[in-house]
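fyi for ur records
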Amino acid sequence: MIRATRRNPERARPARAAGHIEVASAGGCVTATLARPAARNRLDAAMGRRLVELAEEVEDDAGALMLVIRGAGGNFCAGFDDDADPAVVESIALLSKPTLAIIDGVAAEEGMELALAADLRIAAQSARFTMGQLGRGRMPRFGGTQRLPRLIGAAHALRMLLTGAAVAGGEAMRLGLVTYVASGRAELERTAGEVVRAVTSRGPLAARLAKEAVRKGFDLTLDQGIRLEEDLYALLQTTADRAEGVRAFLEKRKPLFRGV
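which gave:
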């Protein structure tokens, strides 16, 4: 008698190779590259934990002026594995220092939610943004239903969520989903470099306080937001960086900010 053999699903379907986060630092800019190209940089558990740790390191490092997130191999991020750290997107969103996402190829589902958590986004013209969770009977759980309509409006956000429609780089720019769009990879790199240099040349304390004013202002009335701005401005006036900015202006030289 011939017996049917029962296949082990784990053996029948090889597990995706594990990924990692490549970290580089130059001129005050810390760059985190999602490196799992065979899976279009889907975030696995270890990658998620490392990204959370890196956000904490950047927050605590006075020499780190901004954080850049990008993907390896021509894609940004095609989503997260089910066991990815639930805190990973919020750790980027809560960072007090400026953040930038450089988006090439696919930014899908949780990967798009990760991009939405950044302050600035640069996309290639060929990049594709999708929110397809509803097609699998799921819904976004990393802030996508809240951040996306705040950027592009409820109607366009619902179009992406309810139909799974893909948005390319040019349309993303028109909708306000991205801050810059580049025609190709060379221009993407050039634009990213220009943005990084512009951000890191500003007063780091002023940048952090301006970011705080903008982010908190969404939950305030206009009068409350203006009072917050005034309070943060008064706080900035007491810092050494502010005094250095005034001296540099009077002496007609580039300021040497120290973040204090």
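DSSP finds eleven helices and nine strands in the chain. thats all i got for now
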